[in-house]
Model the fold of this input.
Amino acid sequence: MALAAAEHEVADWPEAIETCFERGWTDGLPVVPATAPAVRRFLAAAGQAPDDVVLVEATRRRSITAEKVAINAVLAGCRPEYMPVLLAALRAMADPAFTLHGAITSTGGSATLVVVNGPIRQRLDFNAGGNVFGPGRRANATLGRAIRLITLNCLGAQPGVLDRSTQGHPGKYTYCIAELEEDSPWPPLHVDRGLPREASAVTVFAAEGPHNVLSHYGETADAIVVAIADTMACLGSFSPGESFVVLAPEHVQILARDGWTRPRIREALYAAARRTVADLKRGGKLPGAVEPGEETRWMHRGQGPDDIHLVVAGGGAGGHSAFIPSWSRERNSLAVTREIP
Amino acid sequence: MTLKILDPTVSAEEATDVAVAKRVADLDGKVLGLLHNGKVNGDRLLDLVREQLATRYRLREIVVVRKPSASRVADADDLDRLARTCDAVVTAIGD
Done:
């Protein structure tokens, strides 16, 4: 299997790691330098030829081959068997609905949230439980990191060059969770998005960081909805964009006990996550001075209940759910789900 | 024993279907395109560009196109129109 990438000769592994830093191939943390045998193993695991095109970025016409994906997956510390998940995530990011160029370059500073569903979660040991957004699990950590390295190395989104994030957020190192489908009384995300239950899938979303929703004393579904909707209505992230709500098992148990379905939760959140036009103007979210009648004119988070995507994940103890707002303030970038073959 | 490590980057030369347009020597008698990318104040910035260029060149015509959103790729029909009708195009963001 002939590879096209340029080779650099180095004396040993420490020098290889330093060379990757010197050439600007890292996210600031050390990478695993990619050798040809390792890259061939990754391509074989994915059933891909080196020159298979995985993604074409529409704005700058950059084309990324399976070989470049494999090299970056090695750098990120992935295992070869993660390749199908990575390829599906990248193909989802290439969907025009995702608006890849905007998402990776905007001052908004988004990261690609990846949600993994289906049997592949257990097969590859993805974490859907405690510390789901945190460190400790290779599959989550390295898959999200591989996506970041590909945007840096293959799409030119280096900080200060094409990536003009004003602040960015820590999810730009890695931002990958799995859904705790076993603890959910509702169909999992990929089924809600139209795929069969037995399928494995990834959903990508150009997203801000997670906003914690602590509700420990809320022992009813109503209380939990009040807390989540209030977080969703915060001025800082307020827009008609999509939302992900990652519900902790403790909150899920209360919602399920009170008989709440996914549509009911979505409708209740949409109805309550709102601000007046006057508030939005006072907070600099809309231009102009407050006009008569605007104290009672309401705008909602999202364009409708279906803009709120529910995922179950997190540890068994603790009333901590999360609201994850879209980078896109309108319809310019939408969540995309893709089956993992 | 030495190691050989692979380059993970994709360079601009590897962009597909991209050719650089012919350069123009000046703008006298030329059609100038102005592509506003949809950001706040991008139109004001382009107005200034238009005023400045008009003091230096005798522009034949100006074609203004506005993208509906800064985040989205420009509409293919709009790009075709600019390519067909203009000798040079300036684009700008605002904010």
